[in-house]
């Protein structure tokens, strides 16, 4: 079943007096439950593609349908709602709040969503259990290793029960052993039915996915 559908998507940016065509007539389909890696060198257009898939940016031309919803026709407020309800992000830099412990970092998006404390607690604990960090839930990010911080970031995403997880270079700041452990978590989540799109420039990382999409010069 097609979950993500891009048809003839293009995106341009104005830099100085020049026009940069970041994406050029891109068409792509990703099925529900797939684990796809989008790979390409710096400047290839893969980050622009991720931003469009994640509703962080909009295409200049083309069609984007996510889970049956016509994203390309939505206004900013609607896109924000889609990001909040359907998309989970995992970044290279973890993006944890340093003054909050692991539990509170995972809980924060649920507070923004308006859930009560009673509703939040089981979701946070289930997410921390999924990444094997329940025993570290009271630790601050500074008290955790890089791999543990990334696991907190993954738990924060899982707590919101997103339909799709977008992971942008999630192992880029980790050593190879820890990176493998993080990729194993994504594999396990995919086996449980999660749709995962992994952005990377590393072929070894890309090959952990079930399908690799190569991006170069704004095209696939």
Automatic annotation (TrEMBL):
One of its GO terms (cellular component) is plasma membrane. It comes from the Bacteria. CDD domains: ABC_MJ0796_LolCDE_FtsE. InterPro entries: AAA+_ATPase, ABC_transporter-like_ATP-bd, ABC_transporter-like_CS, ABC_transpr_LolD-like, MacB-like_ATP-bd, P-loop_NTPase. GO terms for molecular function: ATP binding; ATP hydrolysis activity; transmembrane transporter activity. SMART domains: AAA. This is ABC transporter ATP-binding protein. It comes from Paenibacillus cremeus.
